[in-house]
């Protein structure tokens, strides 16, 4: 079976017992137990969602127990503030995902995986998944702090010792810390794939459809917050570059620079003209 292809499987003749091709005129190939190709594809997607979720939980556990626990024992090397910068709220994400994977497993139908109704799990956890926003916004700071520390040999050796003790694969810590960012972006892709192989008559169809929109919204919200924080940062840097700033901070009323450019100020009666730079923010000029 070629998984995740775009062409509908119904067009492919299948080898059945006895080596003959089953090219039945009904147009729907069937697997043993009367299962259609679409059901088999849905089984594959459900299995992938469950197995990637279990792998992800192990990954989070390894970071929390293999790295954070060890770092906390070394107050001579790390302050609590540094650990917050490097690992963000990954421990909260771990707690949330543990509950989520249990909810998924409850909905998993072992005997007939294609009948599993997992859409409701994503709907139930959509607001909790917003904690990824904090993690994603902090991630660039984590990378900067790590790159600063790994210029010092004792930190390189320490992180490598953590990885080996926890028996983790040979990837640097910043590689492990990228996983939650990738994970939250992968949910809409998995749900789109699941929806593709869910019949409109299936009891899970409406929930999967709603879950896909919900997870797209979570990803959109995270991106919006990230963009807004970047804008705020730009304004703060812009203001600090101006000498002898007077009046209240721009950030008291505005959070976005919309446009900037030169204007000519003309004063009567002599009609003298002066060039001025103007900055248009969302609530002030």
Automatic annotation (TrEMBL):
Residue span(s) of domain DH: 41-225
UniProt-recorded Gene Ontology molecular function terms: guanyl-nucleotide exchange factor activity
One GO cellular component term noted in the UniProt record for this chain: cytoplasm
Region annotated Disordered, chain positions: 1-33
CDD domains, sorted: RhoGEF (cd00160)
Annotated Basic and acidic residues bias: 12-23
Localization terms from the record: Cytoplasm
Annotated GO biological process: intracellular signal transduction
Swiss-Prot/TrEMBL keywords: Cytoplasm, Guanine-nucleotide releasing factor
The protein, known as: ARHG4 factor
Organism: Psilopogon haemacephalus
Encoding gene, per UniProt annotation: Arhgef4
